[in-house]
Design goal:
The structure is a homodimer. Chain A is mainly alpha-helical. The first copy, chain A, has one domain: Ferritin (Up-down Bundle), CATH 1.20.1260.10. Helices cover about 80% and strands about 0% of the residues of chain A. In chain A, helix 6 packs antiparallel against helix 7. Chain A is globular and about 50 Å long. The interface between A and B is medium-sized, with 22 and 22 residues.
């Protein structure tokens, strides 16, 4: 409330970044990122069961553990603002759970494509938003999006599989497209529900055309990531 | 091989600690601890599904993530010795998987008692062994056994449940006893299979009487932990 009105009045507005540190959408941004980390943790831990090797299971457990480190960063950033992370995350549970339910991998390769492609989509979206945030807020966002070296493991496994099998490649290509489509669907659902977060995204991108341009850039990056995987 | 023969010759034997850093059982000790961390990670992630609240799920995800930090410490300690962690862990997979399969919790409270009591049993056993290890090796063991603050969460939840229900208390008391029994069964199985690790444990405890005395002390500590939980 205090933060909201001071943002509305432009108090503590940093002229070099369009979005003030106390914009109320920042809390929602941290919260959606935080629930994203939790749900990624449990998905990774669950999907690791599909791994044919202990080496694969351990690589995935390390990725899951990195998600929890990110969660702790966001929990602390919210606590600094006097916000309880559990209260803040509640409005985002449904959309993120729906994304994961609609993209439930049935094979280890689908899991791995999802780790890689899903992380990339999130990093593109939040990375662009970060450019418009005040330095302290942007630092938190960039910290939790930092790519881990574990994704190299994914690239190698997927490239090997698709170079050996045309039908695998076709299946995973469709799978990758579906991941992007579902992610955009859920992002739109969240934006329709959460005014403050939407205001933050609109401010970061300029206007509705800016959002459309952002989604186009995300599609280009997605295509490049798919190419890296050989699909 | 090199490490093995120099240990046999007493080379680099530290007179202040009965077990030289290059005792071949040290590699096995690190390996069994490493696989213990991996299996604990996956058990925690799996059992967290039983949690009735997101707060509980997150507390467990943090515990799981701490297990992976410990795994990385052990992986690095083995790498320093020129040992691949996956090769080293292989002989211990069966016994640890058997322990977890025979103590599969059916409720969230059973899970939480298992986290707390299982961690305590392991910490007692390895902590006593650590006292006989050379300082560098002991430091690794103590580091990965360090208790986390998350177990406070477990104590509160269990105490609340058992003070409210006598039948819960009776069930969990039996459950706690079974955990100790299964842990000792699997420890004996491992010792019967792994000569180098057994030699290390015998050296640390003095002799077979020393091992028996260690198991008695573990039973005392176990009873104290059960009392802390109110069972």
């Amino acid at each position: 409330m205090g933060a909201q009105s001071s943002a509305a009045l432009g108090v503590s507005f940093d002229p070099t970044s369009p979005i003030a540190a106390d914009h109320p959408g920042v809390t929602e941004l941290f919260a959606v990122l935080a629930y994203g980390e939790i749900s990624a943790f449990y998905r990774l831990a669950e999907e690791a069961k599909l791994s044919p090797t202990l080496r694969g299971k351990v690589a995935v457990a390390k990725m899951a553990s990195a998600e929890m480190d990110h969660f702790k960063t966001l929990e602390a950033a919210l606590a600094d603002r006097g916000i309880d992370v559990f209260d803040a995350m509640a409005p985002f549970v449904r959309a993120l759970d729906a994304y994961h339910a609609s993209t439930d991998p049935s094979t280890w390769l689908e899991s791995m494509v999802k780790f890689y492609v899903g992380d990339g989509i999130a990093a593109d979206f939040y990375g662009e938003i970060a450019g418009a945030l005040s330095p302290d807020v942007a630092a938190v966002v960039r910290d939790v999006l930092a790519e881990t070296s574990h994704s190299e493991f994914v690239i190698e496994e997927v490239r090997r599989a698709v170079s050996a099998s045309r039908s695998q490649r076709d299946r995973l290509t469709l799978w990758g497209r579906r991941l992007l489509g579902e992610a955009i669907t859920q992002a739109q659902y969240v934006m329709a529900q959460r005014d403050e977060l939407t205001d933050l995204v609109l401010t970061a991108t300029g206007d509705l055309n800016g959002i459309a341009a952002l989604f186009e850039r995300m599609q280009d990056s997605h295509a490049k990531r798919m190419a890296v995987l050989g699909i």
